[in-house]
Amino acid sequence: MEPHGEIISLEEAIARALKYNLEQRVRLLEQSLAAGELEAGKYDMLPKLMANAGYSWRDNYGSRYSAPYDNPTDYTEGDFSDVDISSEKAHETADLVLSWNLLDFGASYYTAKQNADKLLIANEKRRKAMHTLMQNVRTAYWRALAAEQLSERVGQTIQSAEKALGDSVKLANERVRAPDESLRYQRNLLENLRLLESVERELASARIELANLIGLLPGTRFKLQEPAAHAAPLAIDIEQLEARALLQNADLREQFFNARIAAQDTRKALLKLLPGISFEYGGYYDNDRYLIDEQWRAAGVKVSYNLFNLISAPSRMDAAERQETLAEARRMALQMSVLTQVHLARHQYNDSLRQFGRADQIYKVDARLEEIVRGRFQSNMVGEQARISANVTTILSELRRYQAMAKVQESLGRLQASIGLEPQLNSLDSTSLQELQTRIRGWLEQDMSALVTVAQADVPQPAAQ
């Protein structure tokens, strides 16, 4: 793992997550395993080349009665003068036989095609995991950034509120103020402390979650850099998003490949109904001294058929067709679900963008009000409680602003995942962290509509069967 600097940017956090996150590594290993199964499955289509060697022994000679050809009944059982020895008691054998069964070849052929689709399914699962990981990193980054920006201020404000609360209790005990006035003052301080402590609890886990996502140990020290907000209203027709989703959504493509695997199962079921045809050719050796030729070659063709297949054929075909129909129905249902996801994600993104704009306006207003109250406090025009309340209000507004931006990034990631949009990356193992970071930075800075247009220009299609 490459060491990190003092400051980690958003693109570096995403790059580190893609390269070092353990769950992402598991998906890459699953894809590698599927590729290995595909490569190994190809050898099942080759003929079988069997080499055998053995030793045979018996306690007496292999012998049989003999009779003249023109009178085959002319022999006397028990008369050993008419007995011929046909084999030795012990002899060695060896053979090398090449055999090829057409049914086995056909089944292996369809299995190899299914393994190819399983490799594509593993790739789609990796893409889906990458979409989810990037979405989680973007959300956790903004939450951790809020924790970094606000933690110190929250701690200082909690100390000030607790000190003011202690002073108020002391004055109330000395009856310097009226009891009801002191209690109202204390309640306001306690309410502010409750809000600040809830903020502190929410911020405490943000950095730990981010460190886990990007492959760093909990407690690792690093700082975050606030990225420029590139989120903007979408200038893309919903029809374009729907078309992109139907072509590139990871879940939908995975279901498409599952449907192809079910279709191959139907073909394999049909194949089992055919008679088995096998070819054999081999060389044989036997050192039995009663054989005229110790070495010979032989070839043969054999046709076999299990008659019980005629009984089981209808049920096998029905089961295979039902499985294929089920896979197709799942794909159609998933298509409708994906289109719904696209519409919901687009609506949530636009809504979260409006909420962020509103939260940003409220934060700016509260920040100006805090400056005014701070100036009045320094002029002794307002008390400590007013200053603390204004500070708490500003902290909450800033926290909501960061939370709103985290929602924007989350909804944007969900929209990109639903339409199957991700940065074009090479092998993560062979790509350096710096190069990966540069590609992700360019992808994050590019406009969403431009990304969709570029992606639609050359969309890889599932291979036709």
TrEMBL record:
It comes from the Bacteria. The keyword Transmembrane applies. It is found in: Cell outer membrane. Its main location: membrane. Keywords: Cell outer membrane, Membrane, Transmembrane, Transmembrane beta strand. This is Transporter. It comes from Marinobacterium maritimum.
